[in-house]
Amino acid sequence: MNRDILAVIQERAATFSKGQRKIANFILESYDKAAFMTASRLGKKVGVSESTVVRFASELGYDGYPDMQRSLQKMIRNRLTTVQRIEVTNDRLGDQDLLSMVLQSDIEKIRQTLEELDRDNFERAVDAIVSAKKIYIIGVRSSAAIAAFLHFYCNLIFDSVVLVSANTVSEIFESLLRVGEGDVVIGVSFPRYSSRTVQAMSFARDRGATTVAITDSEASPLAPISRYSLMARSDMASFVDSLVAPLSLVNALLVAVSWRKNDELARTFRSLEDIWDEYGVYEKVPE
C-alpha cells in the first residue's frame, strides 16, 4: 500500500468497531510511538487484544501487522522533529541495555542492507563512477560525514573529484555550474532528508549528469531523481542518525571502484608513500 496510512484510517473511521476505533485514535494521535510498538504492546496500550490489532492491520489492506508497522515507520521518518525522536527512543529503550541495543541495531541494519541491496544497480553505479569525466559528491548535515569520507578516498583514486560546498543554496549551484553529460553526481541523504541535496541532484539530472543516490529507501526524495539508487538501512538512536550501514555501503563502493583502477591506483600510492615519508605525514611507529 502506497497511500498515507493516516489518510486511510481517517477515511475508514466510520466503519471501525469500538476496539478498532481505539487503535485508530491512538495511531492518529501518537503515530510516532505506535510505529515502534509490537502488536501486543499496542493492544495493551489501548486496551484491546493483540489479535484485534492484527485484524485492524488486515482491515486496512496490509499483509499483517509488520507490514502496517513498516508503512508507519516509512511515513514518519521524515516527519519527526528532534524532540519527537528523543521521546520515541526513550520509549523504545525502556530498561534495555543501551549499549547492546544500539550495537545490535546497527548489526541488524548492515544485515538488512546486504540482503536488500540491488546488486545490478550497485555494479552499474560503479561502472558510471569509473568512467566519469568528473565526480561531484554532496551530503549535508549528518550525511556530510559520509560525503567527506567518500570524497577523501575518491580524491586519491580519480583526477577530478569535487565535494560540493553546501553552506548555502547559491554555493551548491555555483559548485555544480559546469556539471553535464559524462559527469557523475553522488548524493547522500537520509531522514530527515536535506532539501539542498535534493535540489542539487535535480539540478544535475536536468543537465544530463548521471545521478547516484546513497539513501535509505524508495520513499526517499532522491530515489525518483537518481539513475542509480543504492539503499542502506539507517535508524535513529535518540536524535543521532545511525549511519553504520551507509558507511559500510560506501566502503564496498570504494573497494569496487579501486579494484577496477587497481594498476593505476598502485602507481598513485607508490608516489604518495614517498611524499608522506618525505614530509612526515604519519608518525613512524618503532618496530
What key attributes describe this structure?
287 residues, alpha/beta, five-stranded parallel beta sheet, 57% helix
Mean pLDDT score, rounded?
85
The count of β-strands is 7
Provide the structure class: alpha/beta
Strand content: 5-15%
What's the overall geometry? elongated
> Could you estimate the helical fraction of the residues in percent?
55-70%
Instruction: Give the oligomeric state of the chains in this entry, treating copies of one chain as homo and distinct chains as hetero.
Output: single chain
> Distance between termini?
61 Å
Verbal overview:
There is one protein chain. The mean pLDDT is 85. This protein has helices spanning 5-12, 18-29, 31-34, 39-46, 50-59, 65-76, 82-93, 98-116, 119-130, 144-157, 169-175, 195-206, 244-260, 262-278; strands at residues 135-139, 161-163, 184-188, 210-215, 228-231, 235-237, 240-242. The chain is built from 14 helices and 7 strands. With 287 residues, it is of the alpha/beta class.
Briefly characterize the structure.
By secondary structure, the protein is an alpha/beta fold. It has 14 helices and seven strands. Helix 10 links the parallel strand 1 and strand 2.
